[in-house]
Input
Amino acid sequence: MNEPESTVAGRLAAFLVAGRSAGVAADERHEAKRLLLNQLKASVGAADHPAIAALRDWTLEAGSTGRQAHVLWLGDTTTSEQAALLNAALFEVLDFNETHLGTYVHATSAVAPAVLAEAEVHGGSGRLVLDALALGLEVDLVVATMLMPNAYVRGFTPGVLVGGVGAAAAVSVLRGFDLETTRNALAIAMCSATGAMEAIGSSAHVYNQGLAARAGVTACQLAARGIETAPTAFEGEKGMLSSFSGESPDRIEGVLSALGRGRWLMRDQAYKRLPTETITQAPIDCVLAIRNRFAGAALPEVERLTFRVDPLVARVSAERFARFGTPRNDLQARFDLRFCAASAWTRGRFTLAEMAEAAYTDPAILALRSRVDVEADDRYTINGAALELRFADGRVETAEIDPFRGASMNPLGDDELSAVFRAAAAGVIPDAQAETVLAALWSLDEAPGVGGLVAATLPGGPR
Output
């Protein structure tokens, strides 16, 4: 029988406790800051989304007592569990967040809301919050690496499935848990994992992401009160690996032995400049690259758009095209590569407006959507694509983007990331407030806590 310290949860706990004691390296702390800004960019335009309104009503009713943590951008206060849930939904609903290429995980959307909410309740310097975020993200991605790709193939949303574990890891660091309490928190989160991918394209997917963040907070609250579970929650016969994935247990040692050594997994993230999923970034960039060649000139009639993409992207695109049919809401539209390409060509840009009702009911966009082909080409990863655009008059234009700007191999600089946040915030919050948010974010490692950053996001700014 495995000793608790030698289990997956035990070894991850040892990494977290040691990391809290030693602190993380400056590069990882800075990347945590960038990832947090990316989530603020992803959520600033989401506050009026119908899915957020419904979840907001529910969280406020459920959290009517013990109000201590804030909901970003909206200003509501509620329990840390409910704040984590709603902030995670805000981070996820526009799919404007980051993606880890190797695991398809939006890790920060579950981990950051949990650590921010618990930091408001329990305190902790800005530097500690960033350390906790970095360590939690690394654990999240390590667990995902052991589960993927088979968990994805089986139908589980990666970020939801592992998000509770990452959130529990970050909160454990923030609260300074000892080894046993940390191990129990991780194992409780492992035993409460969920996330069926069938919810993609609906507001239930947004709720599921919130559940992951809340599960991490709850796991820590329970572990702090002495609740325990099987230390083999990950590798046991009925544990996370066998239940959700079925990947070989042999990969566990290789992944864990690399934990904290060399380049961290959290550094290999794709940041988005466009408010849609990662696999659509390069295709839209191809569309706009060709569209811009006609600046100031009449657009010729399009006969067909043919994309060449990673085989996984082609398979996912075909499945969603068949399952969704004509998009019925913006949540389906943003997960429909064909629709996004048609909307970008017709409108000559790609913003949130290109997935709003006026776009997904536009006969011209829908007609063009039916003339988009997506073909598998194993020369590309999810970061790249090629497009052949054939016009009715016989002309052909081509474009290739590989990798798109924002992918880990072609990263956005800090100034570029700030600029993307400003663009996302434009018309949503005052320009001066956006600058206050940026100033608070970039100086978070010198701040006494998260209060200044959270206050900067509230309606009307700091009070």
Observations:
- Residues 4-272+435-457 form a domain with the 2-methylcitrate dehydratase PrpD fold (CATH 1.10.4100.10).
